[in-house]
């Protein structure tokens, strides 16, 4: 009986010591002043993954205890993805509370990619925002208006087609122009360019519906052809109905092998933003220039929004072959060249 009591006493002392130790590491700060570290919680990361990464970065001493505490607090699905500033001397309880509240997330920002921006615009924007040099962006997604089969001195951009089914039929010799979906994105300030590009590609994948892809296939077209035309439409028209009508004009021209003669394609080659390209501009020898080459250009000339993509898939059927944008912002359409000349005389006096 005496031995039993001694054993119980020893067990009680052990439990008291362990309990005190656990309470200390759970609720009492450890170490001295502590070192602040950036800790990133990946989107969709689970408690085990987070606990192990905290251990790897020496932010907790025991990943099992941390994971168990998360489970006891029923916080498995409450930890916020993103970047957190964490001190390595925090108690486990404080650490979990900060990860749940997101109160230390200070290094996130929004970036907004505008409909109709091309890779030049996006590259310069990312540089202005202090995220990356424009050249770093172009090295990954490709340079505008470049055919890498012709420009052998340039290293090719990253091929993302293994990760995205919709890129498998995109020509390998041109950039990702047209596939970086315009939208507002929440990113870490120190995000690398490849991460940002993948967010845009993920968004594109979500926005292009199965119904749209089926319709493209029924029409005997490819997604790349649709995006190429949609990018020109994006630059030419603002209103959804005008976009559909412009799409009808371009399809009418394509049917009779008439050059599209789209001013934005000449601008894409030169990098200019002019409304009236010069004779030298429209004479530039580049497969993106639809004054020089009939049919669609090699690829998109910007990153179109959904309205322009839908217009390219579901165009208005009409008898128009010409149009102008008036100084007031209206679009005037013509069925033949004589009508077109009269419209130009009326609105531009030339």
Could you name the key traits of this structure?
two-stranded antiparallel ribbon, two-stranded antiparallel sheet, 14 helices, mainly alpha, Dna Ligase, domain 1
Structure write-up:
- The protein folds into three domains: 16-101, 2-Layer Sandwich (Dna Ligase, domain 1), CATH 3.30.1490.480; 110-204, no CATH class; 210-348, no CATH class.
- With 350 residues, it is mainly alpha-helical.
- The protein has 14 helices and six strands.
- The model is unreliable at 15-25 (pLDDT under 50).
- The radius of gyration is 29 Å and the shape is elongated.
- The termini are far apart.
- The longest helix is centred in the N-terminal third of the chain and has 26 residues, at 2-27.
- A two-stranded antiparallel ribbon has the order 1-2. The protein has a two-stranded antiparallel ribbon with strand order 3-4.
């Amino acid at each position: 009986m005496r031995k039993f009591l001694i054993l119980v006493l020893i067990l009680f002392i052990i439990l008291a010591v362990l309990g005190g130790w656990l309470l200390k590491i759970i609720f009492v700060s450890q170490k001295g002043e502590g070192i602040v570290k950036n800790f990133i919680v990946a989107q969709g990361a689970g408690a085990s993954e987070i606990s192990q990464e905290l251990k790897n970065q020496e932010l907790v001493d025991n990943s099992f205890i941390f994971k168990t505490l998360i489970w006891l607090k029923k916080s498995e699905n409450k930890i916020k993805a993103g970047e957190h500033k964490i001190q390595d001397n925090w108690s486990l309880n404080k650490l979990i509370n900060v990860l749940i509240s997101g109160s230390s997330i200070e290094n996130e920002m929004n970036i907004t990619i505008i409909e109709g921006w091309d890779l030049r615009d996006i590259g310069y924007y990312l540089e202005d925002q202090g995220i990356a040099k424009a050249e770093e962006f172009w090295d990954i997604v490709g340079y505008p208006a470049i055919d890498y089969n012709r420009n052998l001195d340039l290293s090719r951009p990253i091929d993302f087609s293994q990760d995205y089914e919709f890129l498998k039929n995109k020509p390998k010799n041109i950039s990702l122009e047209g596939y970086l979906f315009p939208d507002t994105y929440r990113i870490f300030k120190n995000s690398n360019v490849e991460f940002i590009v993948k967010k845009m590609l993920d968004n594109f994948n979500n926005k292009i519906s199965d119904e749209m892809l089926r319709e493209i296939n029924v029409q005997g077209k490819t997604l790349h052809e649709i995006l190429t035309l949609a990018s020109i439409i994006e630059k030419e028209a603002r209103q959804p109905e005008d976009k559909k009508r412009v799409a009808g004009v371009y399809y009418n021209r394509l049917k009779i092998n008439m050059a599209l003669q789209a001013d934005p394609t000449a601008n894409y080659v030169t990098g200019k933003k002019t409304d009236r390209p010069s004779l030298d501009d429209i004479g530039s020898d580049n497969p993106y220039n639809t004054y020089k080459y009939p049919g669609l250009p090699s690829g998109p000339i910007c990153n179109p929004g959904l309205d322009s993509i839908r217009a390219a898939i579901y165009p208005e059927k009409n008898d128009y072959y010409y149009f102008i944008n008036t100084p007031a912002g209206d679009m005037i359409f013509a069925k033949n060249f004589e009508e077109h000349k009269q419209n130009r005389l009326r609105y531009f006096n030339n």
